[in-house]
Amino acid sequence: MARPGERIPRTIVKSATIAANGTASVRFDGPDNSFDQYQVQSIQMDSTSATLTSARLYAGDAATGRLIARQDDGQSGAFYGQDGLDLIDSGRFWTLQWTDGTVGATCTASMFAVEKRR
After folding, report:
1. Cα-flanking dihedrals φ and ψ of residue 29, to 5°?
2. 3-state DSSP call for residue 66?
3. Following CA atoms 84, 82, 32, 24 in sequence, which dihedral angle do they give, to the nearest 10 degrees?
4. Mean pLDDT, to the nearest integer, of 53-61?
5. What's the CATH class of domain 7-117?
C-alpha cells in the first residue's frame, strides 16, 4: 500500500500455456488497496511458440471494444506508454491475450508499474 505522495515500483510476472485453440491469456489485477492505482510503464512479453503469435491488451476481459493495444509480433516485444498504457485502478484489471500460437508453448508477460495513491 502506498502512502500519500509515495511511489512504489512494482514488477508483476505472469505466464500461461497456449491451449488447443492456439490462445493463452494472463490477467493483471489492479492494487488490493482501494486508494491506490498502478501507473503502468511497460509490459514486456515473450513466447516459446514455434509459430508467430499476435498479442492484444484489453481493459477488462478480452473483447473487441476493450482493446487498448495490439502487436502483430507477440513472440518478443513490449507495450509502452505510447501504446495506450495508463492506469489500472483497484478493482479493475487488464487481460493480455496471445493468439495463433503453438499448443503447449509458454507465454510470459512482465508488467512494470509504479503503485501510487490516487
Report:
1. -85, 150
2. helix
3. 70
4. 92
5. mainly beta
